[in-house]
């Protein structure tokens, strides 16, 4: 997968060199290219923002540098490939595990993290016919810029790429993963030692009984979901619940 990021803070994306994403790059699974938006400015102050039409607080990112930057990035493709342009903004559609899965199947993503009050709207319209443009929000809060959301989205996407996670099964039971437990959060996990500060391990996990362990994990997932995300229970397919859940 090819990943381009156009930003005024290239150094903000340095975490893409470490851990899982860094390894995916080193293994050639991810071709990450970070671009400095200011390279496409032509005045001596490298201006990327200006005051908003209609008045109001803050500054808006100017369309010209974004236009030149995106033209250059798109033209560096083979010509017949159209990228998905992901525009992080608190006004976008929610970033979900389903969207992470969808984006992980695309050959080429271009992220356009903005600062200030966002990018001049005409840029979003301009690229609508040359690319698949998605405005995406990582949550109902406002950050100072889109770079942290890019790190979040790239990590969620990269770990889904084939050959990136050591064990292909490790995302099978993720919270929000499709499947039998699709509507439930992942339950608690334990490792050695068997006793720590007087606290033991639930007996069932030491029983070796796979059926009972699966049932216990499912019940714990249900309990946690009720406690932390009752909204997920409301939305869930009633077919995933059984009589025991209703008694809990
Ligand atoms: N930029 C600022 N806040 C954001 C958010 N919540 N999601 C995506 N991009 C953002």
UniProtKB/TrEMBL annotation:
Pfam families associated with the record: tRNA_m1G_MT (PF01746)
Organism expressing this protein natively: Streptomyces eurocidicus (Streptoverticillium eurocidicus)
Compartment annotation: Cytoplasm
Source lineage: Bacteria, Bacillati, Actinomycetota, Actinomycetes, Kitasatosporales
Residues noted as binding S-adenosyl-L-methionine in the record, renumbered to the chain: 138-143
Entries under HAMAP family matching the protein: TrmD
Main location: cytoplasm
Family as reported in the entry's similarity comment: Belongs to the RNA methyltransferase TrmD family.
SUBUNIT field: Homodimer.
Single GO cellular component term: cytosol
Protein's name according to its UniProt entry: tRNA (guanine-N(1)-)-methyltransferase
EC number: 2.1.1.228
